[in-house]
Amino acid sequence: MLAISCKNLVKTYDSKPPVDAVRGLDLAVERGECFGLLGPNGAGKTTTIEILEGLLAATSGEVEVMGLRWGRDDDAIREQVGISLQETKLSEKLTVRETVQLFRSFYQKPLAADEAIAKVSLQEKADSRVGKLSGGQKQRLAVACAIVGDPQLLFLDEPTTGLDPASRRELWEIIRSFKAAGRTILLTTHYMDEAERLCDRIAIVDHGRVIALGTPRELIASLGGEHILEFTLETDSAAILNGELTASLQQLPSVTSAEVHDGQARLSVREFHVALPAVVNLLAERGYKLVNLGTHHASLEDVFVKLAGRKLSEE
Amino acid sequence: MSSRSWFEHPLAQIVIARVREFTREPEAVFWVCGFPIMMVIALGLAFRNQRVEEIQVDLVGEPLLVEQTAKILKEDKRMNVTPHKDAADGEQRLRTAKTSLLVRVLASEQTEPKFTYQYELDPTRAESVLAKSAVDDVLQRGAGRKDSVTIKEVERAEPGGRYIDFLVPGLLGMSLMGGGLWGIGFVTVDMRIRKLLKRFLGTPMKKSQFLGGLMLARLLFLLPEVLILLLFSHFVFEVRVAGSYFEVLLLILLGAFSFSGIGLLVASRANTIEMVTGLMNLVMVPMWIFSGIFFSPERYPDWMQPFIQALPLTAQNNLLRAVMQEGDSMWQHLVPLAILLTWGIVTFALGLKIFKWN
Lengths: 315, 358
Fold this sequence. Notes:
Strand content of chain B: 5-15%
Shape of chain A: elongated
Order of helices and strands of chain A: EEEHEHEHHHEHEHEEHEHEEHEH
Oligomer: heterodimer
Number of helices of chain A: 11
């Protein structure tokens, strides 16, 4: 049985003009996996996760969570899922333990409050007021409140947004240990490194649709090369014939794909040391002048750029 | 679930969390406990039953006659007499309300006495009217009038009929209203803004537990608030409950319920602080003005009365005054009782129906 299944999910906000936040999204999340929704801000990730959490009603589409349906089995689903919203301001006047105790009381078979606190490594802060916690500690407390009901499925919406690198790594560890206990996680993120390191499978979401699905490795492999070579040409050094140059670059050894737009080129490359001399030679022969040239290991960012035609970090 | 202690029950946890949040907020504690006392003290002092001790009267006219008149008036110890050489000075003081009464002494054509008095006053000022009758009395007697009947005067200022006795039930009603609107309305909207309501919606917690918890917490805060107000006014101003204490308690609980309902309705949709405070003022300001906290609503014209009597705070104040001041049983006043209860039930039902969690 799937942990989450959703078919042709549509959500239109009836504002003026209406906003199509989700436009026919399909998901199938297996039990025991950490599944990531990766996409830029405004892609529809939060809307999707809130529909799955039962906090928003879908305009149309079928949703099943742990084999149950919203509107029919709400209480049963809520007993089995834990959620952390993108931004919840917990009461600053309560202590960490008091906050966890409050959330704990809502569930039938919860963990002990101190156990949930230990799972997020906040033991030393158990008696501190929430208002005194750092951003990372507050986020860990939010996760403690999400897992105190001992859920089978954990929803995390942008769990590390705005956190410093050390806090992000701590949260990743917490998420990994939750998964190690055989539980399922669905998280949203716009950080490609987070998705790449944490998730078993990823759905890349853009404009309310899934534009790619697979393991991080599969998605990167779909580019055809492990390296990305990018360079920029001086535009008035010669008339640039995008189509002709693209075709020539694609012929070069070890180059699996190439794209050129207005003097900016982006190549997927299997073996960097083979492709680079060939590229430089070709440009020299044609009389193009390089403004800059760079290379990096292919990442999910490159997958997104290839599919969406723009960078992940751009709005 | 049954193996759990009461402490682990969601309702208990919500109440405990609210109490903790509240008691850790010093400002809130002041508003609940300190503010009503300050109101009682300030208003008790301002409107304490003051003996009419001094009557300000100004004299103008023929200097010799003015002097004689002043002499007569000064026989009465209450009179504070200010004669003027220039009539314009006296007229100026009357116009600017520095004196209650201007007496113009005029020479007369008559043989005996050879003068008349002309009283000049603003008939809409209570102290002017009072001054006129007191001055008239003194001057007439000074001129030789004899009382035809013997009058005895007995002074009374007993607990129950003073302004403070009227005021305390009104303040009680006011804090019930404020408590319901702030304690339920404002707190709920604050939680909605902080996305805490949405977060709670994502748990198996029941809505009834959440709202029940907020209301129970509200009642808990009410206890010290009401007790402090009643004890303070009892010991400092000797304000007594003429009727049944149990009925006062029932009325307080009923009021807490009804104003919580109004608070819930106000909070049901609002998603900004500006919106909820605006709505709260829209609800509270008319009742501050019309519902007889500081003075009797019967002072408003008759055509307004149906509207005023239908307000929940008017009903609340009337009921509290009937029991505390008049010593009536609350069951003698079924109409305000029904009004207050209806407000609570209708606003609660409506508030729950349109309530938004996110």
